[in-house]
Design a protein that fits this description.
By secondary structure, the chain is of the alpha/beta class. It has a single domain, classed as Rossmann fold (3-Layer(aba) Sandwich). Helices cover 45% and strands 15% of the residues. It is built from eight helices and seven strands; from the N terminus they run βββααβααβαααβαβ. The strands form two sheets. The chain has a five-stranded parallel sheet. It has a two-stranded antiparallel ribbon with strand order 1-2. Strand 1 and strand 2 form a beta hairpin. The radius of gyration is 14 Å and the shape is globular. The protein starts with a strand and ends with a strand. The N terminus is likely disordered.
């Protein structure tokens, strides 16, 4: 499900994805940070978990952006927002032993869990994730 600009929810047309965006990749596009040029061409095939969407909006608000503007910034990217359901929750928990060494947040693990369950590539600005790819059987594109 994702939100429409008027606040209504719409059911996604497809759960098939090619790229799962980490919060850092979405923020790179919204605030025009380095690496955004690698993310923008992927937006048509991108998703973000609801947990990561929350992280992005929270970060924008903490940087001084108005709440409604922060929410609109994410919605206007037109990327599918994936609900954090029981499958994602259990997968995010299951990878904790492997990711603990990096101190990854719930949002980070939600992103990784989505990629593992969908077979998608992760897009992130976090260089430390690169070493997780082989351990977790996922492909990771680091944007900077």
């Amino acid at each position: 499900m994702s939100l429409l600009p008027n606040g209504e929810r719409k059911q996604s047309m497809s759960s098939k994805t090619e790229h799962v965006l980490d919060s850092s990749a979405v923020l790179a596009v919204i605030v025009d940070e380095p690496g955004q040029e690698l993310v923008k061409p992927l937006l048509d095939s991108a998703t973000i978990t609801a947990v990561n969407a929350c992280e992005v909006v929270s970060k924008l608000i903490s940087r001084g952006m108005d709440t409604n503007e922060a929410i609109a910034s994410v919605i206007e990217m037109n990327i599918e927002i994936i609900a954090f359901d029981d499958r994602l929750a259990f997968e995010a928990a299951a990878i904790l032993p492997t990711t603990r060494v990096l101190g990854l947040s719930l949002g980070d693990r939600a992103c990784i869990a989505r990629a593992r369950l969908s077979g998608a590539m992760i897009v992130t600005a976090d260089k430390a994730w690169k070493k997780l790819g082989p351990k977790l059987g996922i492909e990771i594109l680091v944007i900077r």
